[in-house]
Amino acid sequence: MQPGVPNNESEASALRGSASFEGHRQNREPDPGGVAEGEEIKIFKRLLVEWAQSQNPPFENENKKDAESACDQRTSRTTSSEADTAERGRKLVTSLLSPSLADKDLSDLRTEVSLVRLKAGEILFEAGDPGDALYVVRFGRLRALLPDGQAQDHLLGDIGRGETVGEMALLTGETRAATVGAVRDTELIKLTRRGFELLMAKQSGVMFDLTRLIIARYRRTIHPAAENQPLVFAVVPSSPEIPTADFVAGLARALSPGRRVCSVDSGQIPSEYRGQWAQSSISENGELTCWLHELERQHDYLVYSADPHASPWTRLCVRQADVVLILAAGATPRLEPQLMELVRGPQAGRVRKELVLLYDGAQRMPGNTAQWLASIAVSSHHHLDLRRRLDYERLARMLTGQAVGLVLGGGGARGLAHIGVIRALEEAGIAIDRVGGTSIGAIIAGQLALGWDSARMQSESRRLLVEAGSLNDFTLPMMALLRGRRYIRMLDTLFGDRRIEDALLPYFCVSTNLTSGDSVVHSSGRFRKWVAASMAIPGLGPPVFHGREILVDGGLLNVLPVNVMRSLGRGSVFASSVSPPERLELDREYRDFPSPWRVLLSRLNPFATPIRVPSIAGILMSAASLPRVTPSVGQGEQTADLVFEPPVAGHKLLDWHSLDELVEIGYRSAVETIAKWPGHSPPRSQPPADQASFPQK
């Protein structure tokens, strides 16, 4: 890991929480209170129904009701009608089972099905254990770890509601390959090996479903964007002054299009359950826990609104959540000591924790984020204005894996075409949720992260890169041809003292560490310093010193850091590449390398034939912008979901005066690319400025 720079693998692991289990091994005996006599067949049927339903498209709210009104009906949804049960049975038969598999056949499985309940931190099975059963998650979340002999096991991923675990060992006959434990309180249905074999004999179609699930899980292992997404969120306010109710309502609205969303606070719990907060857990099978789990089963997303202190209700919310959102505001970190202990402690140690910092966009931009991050260990953070609907929508996409990350590559002045690409995305209604880049791409990405639109980017680029004069301040070439003061002054004008943590969008840029020979990712610290490092072409511009290490242009090792964005997960990755292969050719063949004096005289003498050889600046620029990491299909983590390649080969790497032409080239090319993209839909209508916010109460 580089100084002051987060390691990508560590950040990706942190996104899913701690990769360890401190709990004890779970007792594998069936829960004595879990399956009543004569109920096994009903439970197993329901298992299969839920399994089948997990393959169906998301629920569509026909009346397009708000999350609040849908949640108001939760009591009536807690018990299914006979008609609903019959419909689910029909779906079961048509999607998973053949009509020949009747109750008589299922009765053979009676002794092979049982319920298993795990507390957060308990282990379901360990690597090396015999593969004696298959499990289906009804509620909760599991985590799979692969032992590698190190202090920290390798994290394979999470297993959420409706997914199976343990099927590989049943199919191969081998021992368990991974250790699996509970991230939060979890309930599973266990099917023994004998029951599995009986089911295979009755219905071979289940094998097809299992094969499809195994393939999907392996894809998720090598493709983080496809990871199992959280379903239950706990919002924990840092102080009583935080408008938690407004935030929860806004988040529920942002999550609700096409989904069933319910928000729950302590005041909505039925009175007969309120005394169970302190005792209710998965092991006690309390009525409140069962009520909450039924609520979770009937909705796509559940949002718990916790108290601003470590109350029994808050502890229950944290124990039930896939993600804990710490809601905070203000320049000085402030969290009740017991609440700090709760979010730091073992109860929340395995759960993904994220910080949501509220700010008033009408007054000022976010600030002092670094102090909050230093006081609370979280996997990521978000900035949100309570009045801006677009902020809620971005947060919802980030939480549910539907975000769009944009990567902007290096390429000198050609990178101005990125502005045109961003303009095309704006017109198509495609919101960018996180951004990163290299060299010139780091500059444009930084402007986007600060909330600039394409029009402002083009205007500021014209003022600083064209009208302000050349950035070339040649000096005695001890370390570089340029002294670098002019472009440092340009970066100071653009970014000032702003920190990356305070940007509206999550941001990173990359540089190359000549001391260690590694590519370095910068996602915290001063914009000015790290962007300067990302664009410091060796030999042309001065390097950036960090401690005793030397940082230069990130394009030396990664001119288009798609792999970095992909490793962060969260959704789709778009990339804009402006480094087409360029042929540096001489005007004719030379027997010997021409003398520098001959080259100079040929240019000074109007009657001499000029010797056309590339300049040292041109050679250095071309060497730094070679596409060493590309986004082409078939390269695993290097693969982008959508690649923009503006045709900029006809422009020089220092052709800053062609700003408007390059922006237009990028725009027209991106419009065509978006139109051909299979995932493109008609642009979403953009609300007028006065309608982009929620009304104030």
What does this molecule look like?
This protein has about 700 residues and is of the alpha/beta class. The chain contains 25 helices and 22 strands. Helix 11 links the parallel strand 10 and strand 11 (about 300-305). The strands form 4 sheets. Strands 15, 16, 17, 18, 19, 20, 21 and 22 form an 8-stranded mixed β-sheet that branches. It has a 6-stranded parallel β-sheet with strand order 10-11-9-12-13-14, sandwiched between helices. Strands 1-8-3-6 form a 4-stranded antiparallel β-sheet. It is elongated and about 100 Å long.
Helix percent band: 25-40%
Mean pLDDT: 76
Number of strands: 22
Percentage of β-strand residues? 15-25%
Tell me the distance between the termini.
Answer: 47 Å
The helix-and-strand class reads alpha/beta
Gross morphology is elongated
Profile the largest sheet: 8 strands, mixed
How many helices? Answer: 25
Descriptive keywords:
697 residues, alpha/beta, eight-stranded mixed β-sheet, six-stranded parallel β-sheet, 25 helices, 35% helix, elongated, disordered N terminus, disordered C terminus
List the helices and strands and how they pair.
Layout: H1 8-15, H2 40-53, H3 67-72, H4 74-77, H5 82-95, H6 103-106, E1 113-118, E2 123-125, E3 133-139, E4 142-146, E5 154-159, E6 164-165, H7 167-172, E7 179-182, E8 186-192, H8 193-202, H9 205-222, E9 232-237, H10 244-255, E10 261-265, H11 287-297, E11 301-305, H12 312-320, E12 323-329, H13 337-344, H14 346-349, E13 352-358, H15 369-375, E14 380-384, H16 389-400, E15 403-408, H17 417-427, E16 434-438, H18 440-449, H19 454-467, H20 485-495, E17 507-513, E18 518-522, H21 527-534, E19 544-546, E20 549-553, H22 562-567, E21 571-576, H23 596-604, H24 616-624, E22 642-644, H25 659-676
Parallel strand pairs: 9-11, 9-12, 10-11, 12-13, 13-14, 15-16, 15-21, 16-17, 21-22
Antiparallel strand pairs: 1-8, 2-7, 3-6, 3-8, 4-5, 4-7, 17-18, 17-20, 19-20
Helix pairs in contact: 2-5, 10-16, 17-19, 17-25, 20-21
